[in-house]
Amino acid sequence: MSRYFSDKYADLEAYVPGEQPKDQHYIKLNTNENAFPPHPAVAKAVAEESGKLHLYSDPECRELREALAARLEVEPEELLMTNGSDEILNFAFMAFCDEYTPAVFPDITYGFYPVFAAVNRVPYREIPLEEDLTIDPEKYTQTAGTIFIANPNAPTGIALTRGQIEGILQSNPYNVVVVDEAYVDFGAESCIPLIREYENLLVTQTFSKSRSLAGGRLGFGAGNPELIRDLNTVKYSTNPYNVNRLTNAAALACLTNDEYYTENCRTIADTREWTAREMKRLGFELTPSSANFLFAVHPRIDGETFYREMKERGILIRHFSGARIREYNRISVGTREQMETFVRTAAAILES
Ligand SMILES: *Cc1c(COP(=O)(O)O)cnc(C)c1O
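Above: inputs. Below: predicted complex with pyridoxal-5'-phosphate.
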């Protein structure tokens, strides 16, 4: 820390992203990226757009919002595009939390939430997951705070039903409920159809996981136009051109090739189920995942050792050091071939 760093950030602990090794020799199952590359139309669209990089991008993302709105059956005014969904989540902390309105989220969830709270200097309250790592929606009634729920949750992969989220929305009419649907396309129910009914609902999604665009950085929020206006006030006070031209062009190409992505999501869900079955055969215990990753523990090997042994054999998975989950590892679902290698390697580690 330099002597110029503001005291207000003296205790700030930044988010730590998963390892991104430079060499290609690892099978990368540690950051929940999509197993498949973008549709070929994306590269073409990006190449064409690059000739216009001397011009600012459209701060309103009008064309993109119209295309996405048609796909989601909402209005463009109900959408705000951001630089990854991390940005819309940060905007929500800025817009809807303060000293009197704390953020409320599970004790085990996306590791960025406490960091967003800290950097925006808002208090937060964590509600413990149940013994089986599920969320009990009953514990989120009248929280007097802005609720953040990842659905499916990370790193457990466990999803609430739309009906359960509705219960939370109904019991918190004075507070915003943010439903982070980063993984929804791999098998959970989206709450986007509820945005007209509940003015306190903000749904966030990302192109990073189901649309193979993690490196492009595109996310969005869906909610009633008033909420979106508030978030736009924050956006225009920080970075009006938050979505760059290349990403915008890439996303439009994604949306015109939607079947490709839907098919890939289905393949990944099938591969997830195959991998889960094989892992159970090896003695792993897994949470029921609706996402593109598995969360697993083995009674005979501790989480850290399994992570290290995997890395030594060229496979990166994600280990977390939090007290309740340190025996677990999170394994992104790759291609069938990658997962066959993973299962074979896991068997070899357990044997040795
Ligand atoms: C990956 C992820 C995000 C955001 O990812 P972006 O790449 O910034 O869109 C948000 N929430 C959860 C739970 C995630 O796993």
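The CA atoms of residues 84 and 195 lie 21 Å apart.
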